[in-house]
Amino acid sequence: MKDIIYTENLTKSYKGFHAVDHVSLRVKKGEIYGFLGLNGAGKTTTIRMMLGMIRPTSGTCYINGQQVSAGNHHVWEQVGYMVETPYAYPELTVKENLDITMHLRQLEGRWKVARIMERLKLTPYEHKKAKHLSMGNAQRLGIAKALLHEPGVLLLDEPANGLDPAGIVEIRELLQELAYEKGTTIFISSHILGEISKIATKIGIIHEGRLIRELRKEELQQQQIVRLLLKTRDSYAAAKVLRNDGYTIQRDEDGRLVTQDGYAVKNPDQLAKRLVEADLPPTMLFVEEEDLESFFLRMIGEKGEDFHASTAPNYMG
Amino acid sequence: MHQLRQIIWVEWVKSRKSKVVWITFFAFTMLPLMGGFFMFVLKHPEFAEQAGLLGAKAQLAGSADWPSYFMMLSQGIGIGGLFIFGFFTSWIFGREYTDRTVKDLLALPFPRTYVAIAKFIIVLLWSVLVTLWVACIGFLIGWMIGLPEWSTEVLQHGLFVLSITSVLTILLSTPVALFACLGRGYLAPLGFVIITMILSQIIAAIGYGSYFPWAIPALFSNVNGGGNILEVASVIVLLLTSSIGFIGTLGYWRYADQN
Predict the structure, then answer these.
(1) In terms of CA atoms, which chain B residue is nearest residue A130?
(2) β-strand pairing of A210-216 with A202-207
(3) Which of A252, B12, B115, B174 falls 20 to 30 Å from A103 in CA-CA distance?
(4) Residues A127, A133, A134: CA angle, nearest 5 degrees
(5) Which parts form a coiled-coil structure per UniProt (chain B) (predicted)?
(6) Which among B84, B31, B81, B85 has a CA at the least distance from the CA of B61?
(7) CA distance B248 to chain A (A)
(8) Domain boundaries along the sequence of chain B
(9) Complete domains list, chain A, with CATH
(10) Inter-chain residue contact A100 with B17, CB threshold 8 Å
C-alpha cells in the first residue's frame, strides 16, 4: 500500500543539540500512526517539520508524494492538522472561527460548518465566544477546524488533551471511523499511552530525538511481556516442584513465584492442578500482561521490567 | 486573487470583531476634539484668560482659522498617527503570536505571504478609515466652532497635506509589522513605535529630521514651521524603510522557522 506520509532522516538541530535525529518513518493510507514520546522527546518538532513550519536541518518529508516545504502550499489541500494546544480567535464565536477556516480553505457549502459542529457536539456552543469555552470544547473546536475540509491526511498533536473520558471515546471512535471507513491517514502524537494503544495500528517511539522503535499493533502484542505470578504457602517447595517439571521459575521481591514460560502463561490451570497434586495449592495465580506504558518505558530504557499490572484475568484471589 | 480576497475577508472579520481596534480607532477622535478645543480657546480670548495656562498652550496652535486647524490635524496625524497606525499594525500582526493562532495560518493551501499581504491591506484600510474619521469629525467641529478663512483653496491644500502626511505615516507601519513577527507578539512592536516617536523628536530637534523616516511625516505637516516641504532624500529614506519592513515581513512569513 502507498506510503502517504514518509520521512527520510528528518533532523533538526539547534546549536549542536539534535531535537530530532534522523527520524525515518512511513505511514500508509488508512493507518493510524501513534507517535509516542516523553515531553521534549521531539514529537512536536517532528510534526512541525512535517507541516513545513520548521525547516529540517537535514532530511525530507513527503506527504501524498509531495515534498514538504514552506513554499509548497499545494501539499496542504488534503492535510488537516492540530499542533499542540489548539487556540482559536478568542473574541469570535465557535461558528465564526469555523467560518474563518471555511474561507481560508476556500470551501463551499455553509452546511459543512453545521455538520462538523454537530459531529463534535459543538452545536450548543456555536454562538459562544471561543474565550469562554472549556478546555475540552476548545479541543473539540481545534479538531473541528482540522476536519472541516475532510482531509485525507490528519496530523494531530495530543488530540485527547483536555477531553473528559466520554470525549476521549467520542474522538477515538471518530478517528477510527475516518481511518477505517474513509481511508484517512492519521498521525497522532501523544503521551497518553493507553489511548494510543486503543487506537493506533502502528506505533513509533521517539526518545531524545531518535525513533527508537517502530512496530505494528500485532507486533506490539507479540513483544509485550506476559508473565505468570503465583503464591503458595510454601514458595520454596512450589518452586522446586515446578522447576522439576521443567519450568523456569524465579522469585520476585515480594516472595511471589514468577515465570515467563510460554506454556505456563497460556495454561495457568495446569500449573494450579500440578501444585494442588503436590499439596501446595496456590493462594494466588495471576497472568500479568505488560501494558503499553510499561512497554514504552522498557523501550526507552528508563524503567526495566518493573511494569504495572494490567487488567489481565486474575485466576485466583 | 480569489484566495487573497478570502484571506483579506478573514483578516477584516478578525479585526472588525476586535475591541482593541475599535478602542484605538475611537481614541484617535481625541485629535480633532483637542484641535477643535484649542481653536475654540483661541477664538474666544475671554475663555483663554480664564483658562490661564491652557490659553497659553492654545497659542501654539497659531490662529483660530481653517488653515491653522488643518495644519494641526495634519501634524496630529504625522505624530499621533505613528502611534495609532503602529498600534493597528502591532495588533493585527502581533495578536497571532500572542493568541497562539499563527500556527493555524501556516499550513494552508496558499502561499504564506498572502497572509502578511492581507494583513498589510487591513492595516492600510483601518489607517485610511481612521484618517477619514478624523477628517470628518474635524470638519464637523470646525464648522460648529465657526472657524474663519474657509475657501476651496484652503480646503484643497489642507486635504492635500493631510493625505500626504497620512500616506507617509502609513508607509512607516511596515517595520512595525516586522518587529511584531520578530518579537512574536504586540509588545515588542509597541516598544519600537514609542522609541521611534521619541527619537524622531530628538533627531528633528537637532536638525536631521529629514533623514530620519519617522520624523518626515511630521516635518512635512509643517510641525517646525518650515512649510510643507518633502525633500527627495526624505522620500527615498522613507520608501526604503517601508520597503525593508514590507519585504522583511513577507520574508519572515515565508522563510522563518515557526516554533
Answers:
(1) B99
(2) antiparallel
(3) B174
(4) 145
(5) none
(6) B31
(7) 16
(8) 2-25+66-137+148-255
(9) 3-219 (3.40.50.300), 224-316 (3.30.70)
(10) no
Radius of gyration of chain A measured on its C-alpha atoms: 24
Nearest to A87 among B14, B19, B100 (CB): B100
* Reported ipTM exceeds the 0.90 cut: no
Q: What is the 3-state secondary structure (H, E, C) of chain A?
A: CCEEEEEEEEEEEECCEEEEEEEEEEEECCCEEEEEECCCCCHHHHHHHHCCCCCCCEEEEEECCEECCCCCHHHHHHEEEECCCCCCCCCCEHHHHHHHHHHHCCCCCCHHHHHHHHHCCCHHHCCCEHHHCCHHHHHHHHHHHHHCCCCCEEEEECCCCCCCHHHHHHHHHHHHHHHHHHCCEEEEEECCHHHHHHHCCEEEEEECCEEEEEEEHHHHHHHCCEEEEEECCCHHHHHHHHHHCCCCCEECCCCCEEECCHHHHHCHHHHHHHHHHCCCCCCEEEEEECCHHHHHHHHCCCCCCCCCCCCCCEEEC
Chain B residues with CB under 8 Å of a chain A CB are 2-3, 6-7, 9-10, 13-14, 17-19, 99-101, 103-112, 254-255, 257-259
Q: One-letter amino acid identity for B87?
A: F
* Cross-chain Cβ contact B110/A73 below 8 Å: yes
Contact A83 B18 (CB under 8 A): no
Which of A55, A73, A79 has the CB atom closest to B257's CB atom?
A55
C-alpha cell at B238: 522613507
